[in-house]
Amino acid sequence: FSKFVEGLSRMPFWKAEHVFTEGQIKRFRVEEFMAELSILVLEGPQDKKSAVDLYYDRYDKKFPYKSEVTKSIEGHLRFLKSALPDLGKTRFRKQTDLYGLIAALEELSRSGKTLSKLDAGQAGKRLRDLASDINSKNPSTIAARYALAASRQTDNIIPRGTRMEILKATIHPE
């Protein structure tokens, strides 16, 4: 598992989109985030504190889900770059927000939505609108809920789930 997440951490996307600072890269934060995303793709949002250690222990020798996880993460990143070509200049490049976006896309995929059939341009517009709403002086209830979930205990399951649900509804309103 550690070699797998190390490989994912070398994807050019992370640096090109300014997801991590040089200091975070030196402190192996990229690898830690890749572990979190891998677990997210396989099991849905988790409480970081317990899940990451469990995966490193369980898959110390062999990680049998490499192709499934890689394909999923790469597909989600392609969709996000299509929806937000300027992703690296938006709030959604932040790890907390990016985790929520990937969780939302994974959830949509699991519910039978094909990302290639979603209108990425419209999804990007709605995401930019949400970001503006979050930053406004009088944010909507949804934007305020999102801002709160993105500001405290961001790696706990409840805030992660809140962000995922709001982003899922933003990307693909039913």
Short descriptors:
single chain; 174 residues; mainly alpha; globular
Secondary structure blueprint with pairings:
Blueprint (H helix, E strand, L loop, with lengths): L1 H8 L2 H5 L5 H5 L2 H15 L4 H11 L7 H18 L11 H16 L9 H16 L5 H9 L7 H15 L3
Give a quick summary of the entry.
Helix content is 68%, strand content 0%.
Describe this structure in words.
- The protein has 174 residues and is an all-alpha fold.
- It contains ten helices and no strands.
- The protein has helices spanning 2-9, 12-16, 22-26, 29-43, 48-58, 66-83, 95-110, 120-135, 141-149, 157-171.
- Helix 7 crosses helix 10 (157-171) and helix 8 packs across helix 9 (141-149).
- The radius of gyration is 16 Å and the shape is globular.
Strand content: under 5%
Tally of separate helices: 10
* Content-based structural category: mainly alpha
Q: Gyration radius, to the nearest Å?
A: 16 Å
| Order of helix and strand elements from N to C terminus | HHHHHHHHHH
Helicity, as a percent range = 55-70%
Give start-end ranges of low-pLDDT stretches: none
The strand count comes to 0
Outline the biggest β-sheet: none
- End-to-end gap: 36 Å
Shape: globular
Mean pLDDT: 93
